[in-house]
Structures are given as C-alpha cells and as structure tokens.
Automatic annotation (TrEMBL):
Name of this protein: glucuronosyl-galactosyl-proteoglycan 4-alpha-N-acetylglucosaminyltransferase
Gene Ontology process terms (BP): heparan sulfate proteoglycan biosynthetic process
Pathway the protein takes part in: Glycan metabolism; heparan sulfate biosynthesis
Pfam families in alphabetical order: Exostosin_GT47, Glyco_transf_64
Organism: Danaus chrysippus (African queen)
Membrane-crossing residue ranges in chain numbering: 20-39
Length: 918
C-alpha cells in the first residue's frame, strides 16, 4: 500500500495543479450520479417480482442500500484525505520549483561572471606570454652583449712544420726559457694541445741507443690513452722523443756504461726544425739508476728542446723549461693501491729511518756529510726510548763497486722488498741530498722519494733547499714532505716530535695522493708531464667524453602515457613553480680559469695551494669545472652565501641563479613499481628530467603504459646488470643537481624540494634522507662495521634517496679505483658506501641528512636485495675492503641534521609573502 501511495505521489508530482483540480471535480460529480443510477436499477428490478415476494425484496433492497451508502461514505472520506495530501505535496512542489528557479537564475548569473573572468584571464595570460617573450629576448640580448659568442681565433698554425726554422734572437741553450726557445705559433689556444710521439722502433737507431723494450712498449701503449696524442705531425704542438732508459749500441762503451748521445742523428729527426724547438727529450730511468743512464745529455748539445729526466745538475737544469720526472719504477698503469701501506696508525715503529751508502765526494762544490752523520747518530743516541731511530750509513751487503753513481750521492741498500719492509714501519724517512752541490736532482734521490711515498713514510729532505722535485711548478710538495737545510740537522728531532697525529696523517694522505696520481705508474708520470707543459701554455684540456646512454626504445617509439590518479587533497602551500625544463648554466670559463686562478685549489684547511695540472681524467669542460676537483679537496667557485626573506626563497638557498634537478631511478624489471614511482612525481617543482636506468637483462615491454610524470622521461638501457650504473654520467643529464632515487623509495614533494634547497647550500656534499654510520668493532678489533641503527650521529647518507653533484658521477668512474667498482659488481651491494667514501675522501666533509626520515617502506614491492640476511655482513666487508683501497677510512661523523625552519608552522596570510619556506 505504501508503494502504491508513493507511485501515486510520484505521478501526481508530474501533474499540473489545474489538471488535478479538474479531475477532483469530475470525480465529485460522477460518483453521486453513478450511485443514483445503481439504486434506481435495483428499485426497477424489485417491482417486476410477484406480490408474494415484495416484502422480502423490499427488506433485502433496504439492507443493500444501507450497505452501499456506508461504502460510499468510506470511499468519499478516503478521497478527501488523498485530496488533502495531494494539496500539501503540491504546495511543497511549488515551493521547491520556486527555489530551483532562483538557483537557476543565480547559476546563470555566475556562469556569465565566470565567462567574463575567463576572458579577462585569457587576456592577462596572453599579455604575460608577450611579456615573457620580451623578457627572454632581453635576456638573450644581455647575454650576447655581456658574454658574446666568440668565433675561434684565426689559425696561427702553419700548414706543415718547416724543415729548418729560422733562428730567433741569439739565445744560449743554457738560458732557454719558454718565451725564448718555444714556438708558440704551433700551440694556439683552441688547438687542443696535439702531441706527436716519434715511434721508438723507427727513430731510436738514429739516436744511437737501444731503448729499453719495456719502456718502448709501455710508453706507446699509455700515450695511446691520452686524448692529446695525434698521428698527424703537421698539426702537432709538442713532439716527444724517447731517448732512454737507453743503452749504448756501441759495445765499446760498456766500460763506462754511459750513453753518448749522437747529436748528428738526433738533429736529423724529420721535424727537428734545425734547433729542436717544441721537442721533449725523454730519459726515463728504470733499471739502472746510475749516472750513466740517468743523465744521457751531460755535455751534449740538445738545441732548444726540453729535457725530461730525473738527474740534473744546477748548471744544466733550466727552471720553467726542463722537467724533473720520477724514475719509471712502477707498473704501466692501472690500480696501484695494493702497493701502498695503510695510513693508520699515525706513528709507527721507527720515528726516523735511513739506509744508504755514499760514494766519496771530491772537489770544491761538496758538503761535508761526515759531520752530518755524526749529528744524526748523536741525536739518535740521546733520544728517549720511545723514539726509535734506524740509521744505517753503510750497506750490508755493500753496493756493487762497478755501479757508477753521482759524486757524493747515496746508493740504495738491499732489495726493494727489504726496503719496503723498513719504510712501512717508519713514520719519517730521511733523504739526503748529494754531497756534490752541483746536483739539483738525481735518479737515486727521486727513487727514494718514490719508495717513501709508496709506503707512507713522510720524506724528510736534508739539503732540500736546492733539490728540484717532480713537477714542482704545479705540485705543492710542502704538503707532503719536510725540507731542511743540512745546517739545521740539530733541530730535526724537535721538529719531528712537534707534529701531531693529525698533522702526520695529513702529510701521509697528501703524499699518497701525489704518489698515486702522478708518480705511481708510467702512464701517470707521462700524463703529468704533458699536463704540466699544457698548463704552461694556458691551453684547456679536452673535455671528458660523456657516457652515451643506449635508449631502451627506438627513436620513433614513445610508450603510451596514462594519467596518474587524481589527488583530492590540496597541498598546504605552494612548493615552487612548475616550469619547462632548462639545463644548468653552461661553464664558459674553460679558457680563462687558468689565467685567473692558475692551478690554485683549496685544501682541507680552506687555504689555496697549487696542486695538480688537469690530466686525461679532467672533468668535462662544463659546469663541473666549477669544482676544479681533486682528491685533495675543493670548494665550489662562487658558492652562494645565502640571503634573507623573499630573495632567499626565490634563489632556493643562496644567491645563485635558479636551477632544476634531474632524478635518476635505477630499476630492475619492476614495471609496476617503476610506474608507481613515476606517478608520484606528477607536479613536482624544479624537476628537469627523469632518467630511468633500466638495469634488467630483458628490455622493457613496448606495451607497458607509463604514467605521466610531468617532466621528460629518458629510459636508458645499461650495458649489463650492475649497481654501478646508478652513477654513470649519462649525456642526457643536463643539470648539476642529481637526485638518485630507488624505484621503491616513497618521498613527498615537500621533502624533495626541501632537500634540494639544502643541497644548494652544500653543493659539494651528499644531501639525502636515510642516514647510516660506521662503528669500530670492539669485539674483534679488525676494523669498522656498518650500522643502520638509530643514533645521534651519522657518517653516511645512502644514495637510494640523496642529492649529489654531477661531478661525482664523473669522479666515480675516473677517480675511484676500479677495484671498488669490481667489488660492488661481485657482491651486488655497497655502491652507496663507495660513493660516500669517494665524496668524503675528496671533500673531507661529512654528508648532510635532511628531515627525520630514516628508512623507506614499500609493502607492495617485490623482495629487494637489502632483504637478504647476508646484506649486512657484506656491507661490513665493504667498509673494510674500501678502507684498504683508500689506505684509511675517510668517513667523517656528524650530529648535524637539516630541518626546515618553518616546517608545519601556521603563518598568517599577511606574512606568507615574506616567508615561503616549506
């Protein structure tokens, strides 16, 4: 009944009021007529009956009439109730209809207002676009006005070197300098410093010597890796000639074991040009460190060619022109960390050691080393028992008397293995200059320096005020060695004891850096030699070749895009603008930085010092060169000092130009997890590009739909499955800031933007979220262990969610020893620890952790590598192995954590214009 009533009400709701009134009126007139007709019918039928039944009929009719009248009354009352209900509902419907009409009129008026506002907004947007185009044009004009695009200078290089160069102003060979004996017309600023190498197998017989086979093969191989080598002699700036280690081809000379340089033969080299300008004569001592092979040019005329060797006299050496090189005692190239001793402990068994035997010194230009020896012995005898000296001034067994040594020089005792054992136990090692004061350097002295730095013994050079060190014009040896005149030998013990443990480790660390980078191998020595000459000429190096990432899809194929699910919740505040991608500012100082700053870098104490020329492992000539990085420490050039209020917020931390960042995601065949990660990046401010490193064996499915992230997505396929691929410096990365993220890391947009702001104030560090630390193993005392517990300090920030500078991606593959990357591949672990080791080794600064986030949870993700129970045991071993490779543990602990000043702080609307922090 209720259902019928509801349907009637619905039906009545659709009727008009006039029709309802008409219907009710009709019913009120028809029902009485029908009742009257029915009663009349029964009355006429009763009259047709017989007289005998009339009474009975009348009684029956009377009863029926009474019944019909009662039903009729009930029906009428029911109809009246329906009428009242319908009337009430009709009144309610009328009221509702009036309200709807008013709302429709208001909506129509609002729509007109919105249309007008849309028209005004469209006009304003068009005006802003025009203004933006005008501002962009004005910016381009300003850039062109202030930093014009200069065309390369006119070529100054002749088409081919002339057979005979006309002589310049009269200049003695002894007084040769770069301005007087070098042809700068062959080395233009934009030439790239091309170097031509005379093939030893072809030209050595002309020189009159038989060059050592190891040096010939090694030099030819190592120079082939140098980006400056050219096979076209017509365009060369410098010509290399390998003279030694040479042995006389004339067997009659074996009595003196001295190489007599064939001046006629060497001057007949095809590109000698009459006087040998722009030529470098290489004499690399290796097997025989005597004067015979160490000084091949004594009393010889070499014209205006540079000389590079280990043995020089003061009369022969031409400062700023000739080069002192270390002996070729190391391997051809490669990792040399296994030859080094650990840097710790700071103090070793012997405070000072020396082993050597001196040849007699004659002539007026000699020092009396006998009194020096007596002073040293007296110092050792009077030293306290805690200071142990090992001073041996006579070799046992004696040195071969047939060896020809420089006059007054000190020969090496024992074998390389025995000397290495003593040096590994020595805090300092004594190096005595030759008694003959005519010598500026000898091969034996350079060999002692080489062995001392290799074993971590700090060299103490007595008489070093006249000694020339290898590549001293670009390397600051004061940070790695101690130098005293022989007259101050009595102060030696006091000076050694005055150095603290921190100073000892700083000396040892710098010494190992110089040895590894510039002296350890033939390749390192030759690269340093060429870089020194190039630095003299102020010619920038070649930029490092970028890593070309193989695209996972064809150029004509684009994966289908799907819109990410809409998010109903609005952010509490604006995190930043959503802008079109733009790269970091180009580095335009590649030709002027050497003129302005020379080779000055910044050491661990914040002081500038000349360090090293840029070698083939130079950073690309882009914005990375701001760091001028080396493992001795650097600081960003022009780092922002911060700002205040609105300016600070707009600069995103520091008074630097605006910039964006690139997100690098490493994934392994987890399309669903990757799709969720890309979807979470939708609407992220300052995002330049997303680089997906596909680490899987199988390529991604072409049918896979990729969610729209709001920024360009480049999917590159790695050559093999390796965690090291996370740090490949791909050419598609256009920004200095790189956010390394795991595909299963969940980060909010405000956390990412805040970490980006913090990184802009600490551009030389790792800035990220999950913090870890290393702790000393007290139980077994065998090194540091990896710890992921919550603590009040940290020394690592995992690169599964961290910002790093693009320079470190390049350094990971050029500066980090290959043994570290091989170890990561072997255990499929610890690439984040390796990056923390590298950055701490370069900067000597701890990382920066942001926010209170410590771990990441991904409940719906497949099992990860970190879920393996052996994960932490492998990370313990990684720290210990990396410490062996570096020689020490470079990680530094900190209790500093960066949090936003106004995080979750309610600010009134009128003050938000001044405070726009997260």
């Amino acid at each position: 009944m209720i259902l019928i009533h509801e349907r009637i009400c619905q039906w009545l709701g659709h009727l008009k009021l006039s029709r309802v009134i008409l219907m009710v009126t009709v019913i009120l007139f028809v029902v009485p007529l029908f009742t009257h007709y029915y009663l009349s019918k029964y009355e006429s039928s009763s009259m047709a009956l017989g007289s005998n039944n009339m009474r009975h009929t009348l009684e029956t009719l009377g009863d029926l009439s009474a019944v019909n009248v009662g039903d009729l009354k009930i029906r009428i009352e029911e109809m009246l109730r329906i009428k009242a209900s319908v009337s009430t509902e009709l009144r309610e419907l009328e009221e509702r209809r009036g309200k709807l009409q008013k709302e429709a009129a208001a909506a129509s008026a609002n729509a007109d207002s919105v249309k007008a506002e849309y028209a005004r907004a469209t006009a304003e947007l068009q005006r802003l676009r025009v203004s933006a185009d005008q501002a962009r044009l004005a910016q381009l004009e300003a850039i062109r006005r202030d930093s014009p695009e200069l065309a390369p200078p006119l070529p100054i290089l002749p088409s081919s070197p002339p057979p005979i160069i006309p002589p310049a102003a009269s200049t003695s060979e002894v007084h040769c300098r770069m301005h007087s004996c070098f042809d700068h017309s062959r080395c233009s600023l934009t030439s790239g410093f091309p170097v031509y190498f005379y093939d030893p197998d072809v030209f050595s017989p002309l020189i009159g010597a038989e060059v050592d086979g190891f040096l010939k093969t090694t030099l030819r191989q190592t120079l082939s890796y140098n980006s400056h080598l050219t096979q076209n002699p017509n365009e060369a700036c410098v010509y290399l000639v390998l003279v030694g280690e040479g042995f006389p081809s004339d067997k009659t000379q074996t009595s003196t074991n001295k190489l007599l340089l064939n001046e006629t033969a060497i001057k007949s080299l095809p590109y000698w040009g009459g006087d040998g300008r722009n030529h470098v004569l290489l004499n690399l001592a290796r097997r025989d460190l005597s004067v015979g092979s160490g000084d091949a040019f004594l009393d010889s005329s070499t014209g205006r060619a540079m000389i590079a060797q280990s043995t020089f006299t003061l009369r022969q050496f031409r400062p700023g022109f000739d080069l002192v090189t270390p002996p070729a005692l190391g391997p051809p190239g490669g990792d040399v960390w296994s030859d080094c001793a650990p840097m710790a402990p700071a103090r070793r068994l012997y405070i000072l050691s020396f082993q050597g035997s001196q040849t007699p010194a004659t002539g007026s230009h000699k020092d009396d080393d006998q009194s020096l020896i007596e002073s040293l012995r007296k110092m050792a005898s009077q030293a306290p028992s805690s200071d142990v000296f090992l001073l041996q001034f006579d070799c046992d067994p004696p040195i071969d008397k047939r060896a020809v040594l420089p006059i007054g020089d000190w020969g090496l005792c024992g074998t390389d293995r025995s000397r290495r054992a003593v040096l590994r136990d020595s805090t300092f090692v004594l190096i005595l200059a030759p008694a003959d004061r005519d010598y500026a350097s000898t091969a034996l002295l350079q060999a002692r320096l080489y062995e001392a730095l290799r074993s971590g013994a700090i060299p103490v050079i007595l008489g070093g005020d006249r000694i020339q060190m290898p590549y001293s014009e670009v390397l600051d040896w004061r940070r790695a060695t101690l130098s005293l005149p022989k007259a101050r030998v009595t102060e030696l013990h006091f000076l050694l004891r005055a150095l603290s443990d921190a100073d000892l480790l700083a000396f040892r660390r710098q010494g190992r850096l110089l040895w590894e980078r510039y002296l350890s191998s033939v390749q390192a020595s030759m690269d340093s030699l060429l870089a020194t000459i190039r630095t003299r000429l102020n010619i920038p190096p070649h930029s490092a070749a970028p890593t070309m990432g193989a695209p996972a899809f064809n150029e004509s194929y684009y994966p289908p895009k799907i819109e990410p699910p809409a998010v109903d919740t609005e952010p509490e505040e604006t995190l930043g603008p959503l802008e079109a991608p733009y790269p970091s500012p180009s580095y335009r100082r590649n030709y002027s930085v050497s003129l302005l700053n020379g080779y000055e870098l910044w050491n661990d104490w914040g002081e500038p010092f000349a360090l090293f020329p840029q070698l083939p492992w130079d950073p690309p000539v882009t914005s990375e060169a701001r760091f001028m990085g080396s493992a001795a420490g650097f600081r960003p050039i022009g780092a922002g000092a911060g700002g205040s209020g609105k300016e600070f917020s707009e600069a995103l931390g520091g008074d630097r130009p605006r910039e964006q960042f690139t997100i690098v995601i490493l994934t392994y065949e987890r399309e669903a997890v990757l799709a969720a990660a890309l979807a979470r990046l939708r609407g992220l401010p300052y995002l330049n590009k997303v680089v997906v490193v596909w680490n899987g064996v199988n390529p991604p499915l072409s049918s896979q739909s990729w969610p729209e992230s709001g920024a360009p997505v480049a999917v590159v396929r790695a050559p093999r499955n390796s965690l090291n691929n996370r740090f490949l410096p791909y050419n598609v990365i256009d920004t200095e800031a790189v956010l390394c993220v795991d595909d299963d890391a969940h980060l909010r947009h405000d956390e990412i933007v805040f970490a980006f702001r913090v990184w802009r104030e600490h551009r030389d560090r790792i800035v990220g979220f999950p913090g870890r630390y290393h702790a000393w193993d007290l139980n077994f005392n065998n090194g540091f262990l990896y710890n992921s517990n919550y603590s009040c300090e940290l020394s690592m920030v995992l690169t599964g969610a961290a910002f790093v500078h693009r320079y470190y991606l390049w350094s990971y593959w050029r500066l980090l020893p290959a043994a570290v990357r091989d170890y990561v591949d072997q255990y499929m672990n610890c690439e984040d620890i390796a990056m923390n080791f590298l950055v701490a080794h370069i900067t000597r600064k701890p990382p920066v952790k942001v926010t209170s986030r410590w771990t990441f949870r991904c409940p719906g993700c497949p099992v990860t590598l970190s879920a393996d129970e052996t994960h932490f045991h492998e990370r313990h071993k990684c720290i210990q192995f990396f410490s062996q490779v570096f020689g020490y543990t470079p990680l530094l602990s900190t209790q500093y954590r960066a949090d936003s000043v106004l995080f979750k702080t309610r600010i009134s609307h009128d003050k938000q214009k001044c405070f726009k922090f997260i």
